[in-house]
UniProtKB/TrEMBL annotation:
Protein EC: 2.7.7.7
Reactions it catalyzes: DNA(n) + a 2'-deoxyribonucleoside 5'-triphosphate = DNA(n+1) + diphosphate
Keyword check for Glycosyltransferase: no
Coiled-coil ranges per UniProt: 293-324
Nucleotidyltransferase recorded as keyword: yes
GO MF assignments: DNA binding; DNA-directed DNA polymerase activity
Keywords: Coiled coil, DNA replication, DNA-directed DNA polymerase, Nucleotidyltransferase, Transferase
Gene source species: Fastidiosipila sanguinis
Stated name of the protein: DNA polymerase III subunit delta'
Root EC class: transferase
Amino acid sequence: MLNILKKCKNYNNLIGRNEIKSELIKLAQTMDDRFIVFVGSQGTDKEAWADALASNLLCENPREDGACLECRACKYLENGTHPDYLEINPEKESKNIAIQTIRDRVHAEINILPQLNNVKLWRIDANALQEGAQNALLKVLEEPPSYAYFILTIDDRTKLLPTLRSRAREIKIPAMSRVDLNTLLDQHDVSDPNQRSLAINFSSGLPELALQLAEDEGLQEERKNVFKWFVEFLRAREVDVLTTSYDFWDKSKSSMDTNILFLQSFLRDMVLLHAKPEIEKDNLLNQDMLNYLQRLNQEYKFSVENLSNALRTLNEVSKRSKANVNFEISICGMLLKMRNALNLNK
């Protein structure tokens, strides 16, 4: 997938976002910041950026593009045997990093001098740091030795204590642009135009999701099934909404989030087609369904308000699903509200 297993990287391994590369190169050259936090939504490649900086800092012969990938330090890092690199992740049977782990892996190691060069580096998954573990880490960060560097990755910066955030150099890793996603798909030999379109249009710029979408042929079929359901839902009698229409969602419960995403994309494209019937095909998420979506708009004479209200309903359901609201109540409410929003009860 994203070459996640390759721990030693330089910036040539990373796609686009050149301003971040420049920032990291300068940071590694000056070595002024010793507590760095990479922040990015789940599914971004922030871990790869963190690995590239770690490689750069530990490398014995760094180049303009980061680690040389050839020196003794780079080889040790790649093989997982670098004596001055300590990676801290959640314990196997837990989602969290224990306070004792911070004491054992940081407090007990902090005063042991580096063996290879003048850098000792801790790489920590901060998503797993609860308040107690963060406070334990904070004690070390108050007066760290000059050779100690800490690189953390986290999805949401607000999950870090303010006292930690105030000490950190924060590097924000944004989602990939469409150009960058195309480059990513080229690198992974994704040539099928439908797979590429699905990956680029539905990944929200998240590289891991883009590759998953491109490589999972079943998702193409699932999108078609959702569209078929949508057409049948529009034609269904009101009395069938909570039975026949509901059955599809009940049987595909595990794919609920993905199916809602597909349904949102149909409505979004229909809004665009309504506002601008001659819109260029490239502006649509479902380019291969252009004619079908146009026919639905014409057949049911949806207004932009109808479609926008239906979209809002789906957005609400998506939020509720993340809050663990009862599935049956959530879907039944969605179906009834969508019928009302699309004015299908007339």
